[in-house]
């Protein structure tokens, strides 16, 4: 069975497990909170205004207001929900799954009038598909310069959309073929509006390809294989083992700090440290070598740069600045003298024996005593603990977090997104 | 100066030469004829119906009827105009330039109310940009599996769109960056509707990226460099030599036969052969090795397969079947006994010393005499001869070819396309 046939079969027939659906619901709520919180970002305004000006059939909700044709709503919502870079991450997939997949599935769900349960199941099928394709494409694909959020995300978006459209296997294989010729997105966009745009491109490509396949466009049946061969894919078949039975989406990570995910293990470790900042002599952070090139700005000058700085965020955490609040990452905070002073005492060390989800922190006090803490983002967290943490995060992002949290109908969710 | 800066400068400032504009006008007319002739193809109906159903602001004409937002019209028209695979080819660029570029420039021209002359100049700037980027990406990019029509085409479409939108250099560089993260298209689609769709994807990507840049989306400034590095680009800077001074679009090829371009040098050579088919003992075709894998089906069973067959099209030409007529490539003609008999006498030989644009034909008659002919598609053809051949071709494709040929206003052209 080809990889395209396996994914098509998964899209058409799979039955999500209850625990995976529960996790998906948390990712959905977190995605919606991030989207609503990002609705007034410059990127959001530009794309929404352009979309509304172009207009079209009011079939799918746009975050921040209005309804547009499904492919267009998917594009805009994908970009808006990634604007704050505060949405979920899947480390094995090497990217953000929800921002590429959920906007596509949501737009199609509104278009076809799906139930909330069918919508949630399709979100999970799309997200799981994105994760599996991301793993199948592998680290080579990422390292050469592709953005899995966009590329693997487009495949996942397509699989979720096909599910809601009631595709049969032939249509699903055509959809996978068509998305393979449209999926795109480069890492070189990191640091520009092109990064969140990439998430929107994934969502749009998934919706378009699925709708094209359902309308009868013919396509290669080996689209993903060709995509892998051209896009430096590792093409490791192990990535698909257990598809439909085990759910890699259970390994998704959520951000509890409004900064680069590479800083989170350190920040979780520091949450266990309680010392008077004035007693600190030095701080040593040990992290995976990859993060050194991603988020180790020693002297950030802006709020954006602070989001990619071990020293700054460590200082913020030790000084009691709320790193879960977006407002904490302002230009002013980046220049605060006490934080600048403390961050000057922070050293960052790479250690290849750590995973990308692990960090160690060693705080040395002026009296010579040492506090050692460590954290592994992969360590188990119950759904209840995760839900509580995400709900608290949502309360800091949106006004009506509790209404969002209790959503049980698609129309209630989309009304909150449009508001 | 970076390659992005060079292309941006070219888009913003270049002044097309008169001879290049005259050639562009011929490509434009040929493109329009192919588009109108393809308006009822299954792919055309599917995409146009979907577009009309989704609706939106009536700013750009759709081939076959209606107006839609510019990005959507660009997508649909790109695909429709490539549906018959009868549009122009640029061998150095390794693809079809007009189907990716013209639909984008046309949609933007209608959106901004451009004059016909400005529209034509932007078509040329976009096409020249596509050719240069195609050469820069090189043969490796094509051989690994990318479709230059779609990828380099998207960059060209963007450059042409930026010209009409009045972009400054900063905006043009942003547009190039944004199109680099959206440009996509795989050769594995050849033989399916995904192939003409790829041309539409190029046109859409170019329009979207240009409009996004003008609306203020920020982007990497080294987008094409990143695109080349990830997409197996050769990145040969020689490709940009003389940009703005010499026009590689003067080397564009037009199809005068309704089949794969690899067969055309042979068919032009055979047009000089006048023998009674019943006197033929054997035919030997010598061609470039690449074409052996593209268009050497020895026993085609359908009209589509006949379009990729040396033996069938050689037999058709020798038997006086009009290879310029689309209707000649029917399933019936593929099965005609006299043609099947003659094609059985045809041998095809590869010769790496020929260029891809050259072919030799040796016809041996039953009496032992031999007729030898050869043709090089690169051999000079005056604009007048080319115009006459293209106008004759257009008369076989559309009802109102002479009206099309005399178009001098954008509104007249778009009215013919919508009809």
Key attributes of the depicted protein:
homodimer; 419 residues; alpha+beta; 2-methylcitrate dehydratase PrpD; 60s Ribosomal Protein L30, Chain: A; two-stranded antiparallel ribbon; 19 helices; 6 strands; 8% strand
What does this entry look like structurally?
Chain A is α+β, with helices and mostly antiparallel strands and 419 residues long. Chain A folds into 2 domains: 3-253 and 382-418, 2-methylcitrate dehydratase PrpD (Orthogonal Bundle); 261-376, 2-methylcitrate dehydratase PrpD (60s Ribosomal Protein L30, Chain: A), CATH 3.30.1330.120. Helix content of chain A is 53%, strand content 8%. Chain A has 19 helices and 6 strands. Chain A has helices at 3-13, 18-37, 42-54, 70-81, 98-112, 116-144, 151-164, 169-180, 194-215, 223-230, 264-270, 289-292, 303-306, 310-318, 331-335, 337-343, 383-397, 401-405, 410-418, and strands at residues 60-61, 67-68, 280-287, 346-350, 358-365, 370-376. The first copy, chain A, has a 4-stranded mixed beta sheet with strand order 4-3-5-6. Chain A has a two-stranded antiparallel ribbon with strand order 1-2. In chain A, a hairpin with a 4-residue loop joins β5 (358-365) and β6. In chain A, α8 (169-180) runs antiparallel to α9 (194-215) and α14 (310-318) packs across α16 (337-343). Chain A is globular and about 75 Å long. Chain A starts with a helix and ends with a helix. The interface between A and B is large, with 54 and 55 residues.
């Amino acid at each position: 069975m080809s990889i395209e046939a396996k994914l098509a079969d998964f899209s058409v027939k799979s039955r999500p497990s209850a625990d995976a659906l529960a996790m998906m619901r948390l990712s959905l709520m977190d995605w919606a909170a991030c989207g609503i919180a990002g609705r007034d970002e410059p990127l959001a305004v530009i794309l929404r205004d352009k979309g509304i000006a172009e207009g079209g059939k009011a079939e799918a909700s746009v975050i921040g207001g209005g309804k547009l044709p499904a492919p267009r709503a998917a594009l805009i919502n994908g970009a808006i929900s990634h604007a704050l870079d505060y949405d979920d991450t899947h480390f094995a997939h090497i990217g953000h799954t929800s921002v590429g997949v959920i906007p596509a599935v949501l737009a199609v769900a509104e278009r076809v009038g799906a139930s909330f349960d069918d919508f949630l199941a399709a979100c999970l099928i799309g997200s799981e598909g994105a994760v599996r394709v991301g793993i199948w494409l592998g680290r080579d694909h990422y390292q050469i310069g592709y953005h899995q959020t966009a590329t693997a995300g487009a495949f996942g978006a397509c699989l979720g959309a096909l599910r809601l459209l009631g595709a049969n296997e032939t249509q699903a294989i055509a959809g996978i073929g068509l998305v393979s010729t449209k999926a795109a997105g480069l890492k070189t966009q990191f640091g520009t509006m092109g990064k969140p745009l990439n998430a929107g491109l994934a969502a749009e490509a998934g919706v378009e390809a699925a709708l094209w396949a359902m309308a009868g466009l013919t396509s290669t049946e080996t689209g993903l294989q060709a995509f892998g061969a051209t896009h430096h894919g590792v093409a490791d078949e192990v990535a698909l083992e257990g598809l439909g039975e085990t759910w890699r989406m259970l390994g998704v990570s959520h951000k509890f700090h409004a900064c680069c995910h590479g800083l989170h293990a350190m920040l979780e470790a520091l949450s266990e440290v309680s010392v008077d900042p004035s007693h600190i002599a030095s701080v040593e952070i040990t992290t995976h070598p990859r993060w050194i090139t991603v988020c180790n700005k020693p002297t950030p000058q802006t709020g954006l740069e602070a989001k990619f700085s071990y020293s700054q965020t460590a200082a913020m955490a030790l000084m009691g600045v709320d790193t879960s609040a977006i407002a904490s990452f302002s230009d002013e905070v980046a220049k605060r003298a006490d934080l600048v002073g403390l961050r000057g005492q922070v050293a960052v060390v790479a250690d290849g024996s750590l995973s990308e989800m692990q960090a160690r922190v060693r705080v040395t006090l002026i009296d010579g005593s040492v506090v050692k803490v460590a954290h592994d983002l992969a360590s188990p967290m119950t759904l209840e603990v995760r839900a509580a943490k995400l709900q608290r995060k949502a309360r800091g992002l949106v006004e009506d977090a509790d209404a969002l949290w209790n959503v049980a109908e698609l129309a209630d969710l989309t009304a909150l997104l449009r508001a």
